[in-house]
Amino acid sequence: MKKRTEELAYEKVKRAIMLKRLNPGQRITEDWVSQELNMSRTPIRAAFKRLESEGLIQLVPHKGAFVCNPSNKELEDVFHLRIMLEGYAAQLAINHISENDLKEFEQLLEQEIASYKSRDFEEFMHVNGLIHSFAAKIADNKFLMQQVETLNQWSDCYLILRDEFYTTELKNVKSIPEHKAIYDAYQKKDLPAVKKAIELHLLSTLSDLSNQESIFS
After folding, report:
1. Has residue 201 got a pLDDT over 90?
2. Which residues partner with 65 through β-bridges?
3. What is the edge-to-edge ordering of all strands in the sheet holding 27-28?
4. Can you give the chain as a three-state secondary structure string?
């Protein structure tokens, strides 16, 4: 029961941030969430810690929780580190990719398009995370996988706060053809091409996010 209430609190607060019902920098109190969800503060406290680990909120001693408001410097640090780690993951995975792995990647590309068409932001980000952890999973390096997933979670925070998901037409979504370019390079087992496609994609995303202020600013 405790685990279920913690999960519920986590999902409700995360969804409110994703749907931009909570603004960057906005304070969220345990008391308020407790009243809104009709539950005790203990599972909410645990949910807050989980959300902080994902970079969605910041816990400030004696002040409470605040929706994150990332700086351009943080964006740059995360995305440049992702280029290094995802390129290294590709290097470890390139000679172990099977036809089934490629089919799985192809299915992810199809799911990405479907989720965008249906405006399912949560599913879109979930699929995006699977695409970016594809190589680390095949590399079978749990420590690398943990780091890639953590950075993906931080990136999700930036996408939630700065990406124009609800206003960009499908034909103008850069990540979809950029992910396809990564897939094509994997299919050819061309490591330099894979690394270049990953770098171009992440730098493109970084540029778009850095040049766009939060809609709540």
Report:
1. yes
2. 28, 59
3. 27-28, 64-67, 57-60
4. CHHHHHHHHHHHHHHHHHCCCCCCCCEECHHHHHHHHCCCHHHHHHHHHHHHHCCCEEEECCCEEEECCCCHHHHHHHHHHHHHHHHHHHHHHHHHCCHHHHHHHHHHHHHHHHHHHCCCHHHHHHHHHHHHCHHHHHHCCHHHHHHHHHHHHHHHHHHHHHCCCCCCCHHHCCHHHHHHHHHHHHHCCCHHHHHHHHHHHHHHHHHHHHCCCCCCC
Listed residue (177, 176, 98, 173) closest to 134, CA to CA: 98
User: Which token pair is 2?
Assistant: 């405790």
Residue 217, pLDDT > 60, answer: no
Query: What is the pTM assigned to this prediction?
Result: 0.79
Tell me, what's the pLDDT at 167? 67
Which pLDDT score, from 0 to 100, does residue 164 have?
62
Q: Measuring CA to CA, which residue among 54, 8, 41, 46 is closest to residue 153?
A: 54
